[in-house]
Amino acid sequence: MLTTVPITTNTLPSNVPKLDIKGANWAIFSLCFQVAVKAKELWKQFDRTEPHPVGINVTAPDGSPLILPLDPVTLAKWLKSENIVKHLLTQCIPNSTVLCVRNLASVAAMWKEIMCEVTSTKFLESLCPTNGDVCQSWDDLYMKCNELAAVGID
């Protein structure tokens, strides 16, 4: 007998770490988070392949442009997915980060802002200290580049 295990959409598995406040674990957090959200078939909210639905532009019989109203069922479905992924994201980022991105229009915008903030901060902090080991700094920078490449950032 084949049994199925339901995938709950409102929680993340325990292997998804909480993002460190300084973003030190960004690479592993981002990878685990993306895998978990993709498994729930909700990543489309983050990568904008499921944009906010809008009314349909058509041409009226008299040739004037007309926008048909949005289907309420389609909008409700999209809003439910958007709210679920916002909930998933805010479960595993620092409270200060939640407060910084809370007013952005979509979870895709929130994700982009978090990604930009964490990756730019990590690179700004990767300067070689005065009288520091330049070779070690280059090795650390190379490692950071590989970490970002592993999560799809060029």
Averaged pLDDT: 83
The topology string of helices and strands comes to HEEHHHH
Radius of gyration: 20 Å
Question: First CA to last CA: what distance?
Answer: 46 Å
What does this structure look like?
By secondary structure, this protein is mainly α. It has a domain at 25-126. 49% of the residues lie in helices and 5% in strands. It contains five helices and two strands, in the order H-E-E-H-H-H-H. It has helices at residues 26-39, 72-91, 95-101, 107-124, 134-150; strands at residues 56-59, 65-68. It is elongated.
Q: What are the key terms here?
A:
mainly alpha, two-stranded antiparallel sheet, 5 helices
Describe, in short, the structure shown:
This protein is mainly α and 154 residues long. It has helices at 26-39, 72-91, 95-101, 107-124, 134-150; strands at 56-59, 65-68. It has a domain at 25-126.
Write the layout of secondary structure elements.
Blueprint: H1 26-39, E1 56-59, E2 65-68, H2 72-91, H3 95-101, H4 107-124, H5 134-150
Antiparallel strand pairs: 1-2
